[in-house]
Each structure stands twice: as structure tokens, then as C-alpha cells.
Amino acid sequence: MFNKLTSKVNRASKLLQPIKVYPKGSSIKNDGLSKSHRLMLDMGIIRQANTGLYTLLPLGNRVLEKLISIVDYQLSNIGAQKINLPNLTNANLWAKTGRLKTMIPEIFQVTDRHRISYILSPTHEEAITNLIANIGPMQKNQLPLLLYQISNKWRDEMKPRLGLFRSREFVMKDLYSFDLTDEDALKSYKSIDEAYKNILDHIGIPYIVAIGDTGLMGGTVSHEYNYLSSIGEDTVLSCNSCGIHLNATLSDDKSTCRNCNQLLEKNSTIEIGHTFLLGTKYSSVFEATCHFNNKRVPLSMGCYGLGLTRLISASVEILSTNEDLRWPKCIAPYTN
Fold this sequence. Notes:
Elements: H1 2-6, H2 35-42, E1 46-50, E2 53-56, H3 58-77, E3 81-82, E4 88-90, H4 91-97, H5 99-103, E5 108-111, E6 117-120, H6 125-135, E7 145-154, E8 169-179, H7 182-203, E9 208-211, E10 221-228, E11 234-238, E12 245-247, E13 265-279, H8 283-286, E14 289-292, E15 295-298, E16 300-307, H9 308-319
Parallel strand pairs: 3-7
Antiparallel strand pairs: 1-2, 4-6, 5-6, 7-8, 8-16, 9-10, 10-13, 11-12, 11-13, 13-16, 14-15
Helix pairs in contact: 2-9, 3-7
């Protein structure tokens, strides 16, 4: 009986955790790394494999799995269904929407033996919309359709830095919503916003939801989910009077609020999530439609990203001291 019980015990002596030991009395020098990057390397959470590429060691992988469980639970509560799209996307799909040309510097491309070009996908708007179009017109009773995946993504960063904050390979949750009308799509958008807030509330680190830039993704509505941090590469303008938060790129006047003319507070932030209301930008190109009133109506879409490895790194950055690595309790490697 004892052997059966101890067979499932996690033994510290067996754990693969290569810790960097500093000589007694030495001080930690400024090596240009962020606090989270250095701590996760020193404590055996991650290991650099190449520039911008990291291995999640056993403790890091446990943290990721616990975070995935939290995300899965909240998204299942709103009826989202989990799928797994191929990591390689035919480049012709990206050419069809025009994003291939605009994003060439940031994407990895490979060519197979038949000289067909593929993209190591940083995101999957084209792939998911093409999937729905190929399945055939949706029926109204199938909507809203919320599909998501949690998978590795790739971006050819010019200067990978800050460890998992800006790496060439990262783990992201991407979700795509399909609705009959823009009004219905907005309802889906709001339900996913609530799910995101539940996830971040559960983790317990204060965050800001700011109006975001639609950028290359397109669409009409966008929000960014941010942690406040001095190493953050984004800037959010906040008004303490009316409560508005927006990305600084959206405002010509960085000093006063356009709503109430009060002074704006400027904060450096780490973007951990981004949501977009896309309308029919992608569905009209791929003819992803719904049968309605004897017509085929282009589906109204939304897309929703949450950077899981970035969130892990950000939580370490915010909670830790220079000497001690600290986790939110719910994703610490060996807590219930």
C-alpha cells in the first residue's frame, strides 16, 4: 500500500531544475535582463534554446498547464469550444486578405517539396474563417459560434528581448466568434470581455482594460488588457475623472482627456490580451456565411488573443523581488 501511495509523490531530488547559485555575499549585477527573465533563468523555470526561443522546464510547464486550466474553465462557461488548427497555414490564404504583404517582415515562411509556401502562424484569422467557409453555410441556430485554441505561435522578432515578453515562439490563446449580425457579434464580444476579466480577477494582479488600436488586424472595436509595469513597451493614458483608458497611439493630445478635459495619467504597461470586433472583413473574403431569409449572409466576426507565456512572465515581473521569484498562488507550480 505504501508503495502505491509513494509512486505518485513528486520528489524534489528528481526534479529537473537547474538553479544558478551565486557566491555568498555577491550582489546581482545589472546584466540587461528584465527581473522576470533573470529569475526564471536562474531558478530553472525556463532555459534559452536560441535567440528568442525558450524551453519551458518542468516547473514552467506546470505553471502553464495551471493557467490553461483557468482559461479553459472560464471559456467553457460562455460556451466556447476548443479546437486545434494546424500550425502551418497556406500562404495563399494570407495573400487573399492582403496581410501577407503587410506582415512579411514579422512572419516565418517555409516551402514544401511541392514549392507550396506556408506560414508558421502568429494568428489564425484566415485559417479559421476558411475552415468555416469550407464546412458550408451556418444555420442561425448554430450561432453564436465561439471557437478557440491554445497553441504555439511564431513571430520573427527583429530584436527578441525580455525573455518570454517578446520571444520568437510563444503560447497564445486565440478565440474567434461568428455571429449573424454586428449586434449579435457585440454581445459575444462583451461575454468574452467578461470571461477575460474573470480570468484576470482569478489570477489577482491589478490590470487595466484600455481602448486599443485595431492596426493590421482591422475591425471597428478593440480593447487591450494590460498590467502596469515600468518595463512595459506600451503606454496607456488614463483619466481618473471619467475612468477612460486608451492606448497612447490613439490620442494626439497626451495631456488632457477628450471626454472631460481633465489631465491624463501616463503609464507604461505590458499588453497581455487584445480583442477585436472584426465585422465581415474576413468572412466576406472567404465567403463564410449563414443561411438567413433565403440568403447567404456574411458572418460577423471577432477575434480575441491572450498571451499565456507573456502573462506568466508578467506576473513574475510584477510580484517578485530582485532576489525572490513569486507567483500568483493559483498558478504556482505545486499549490492546489
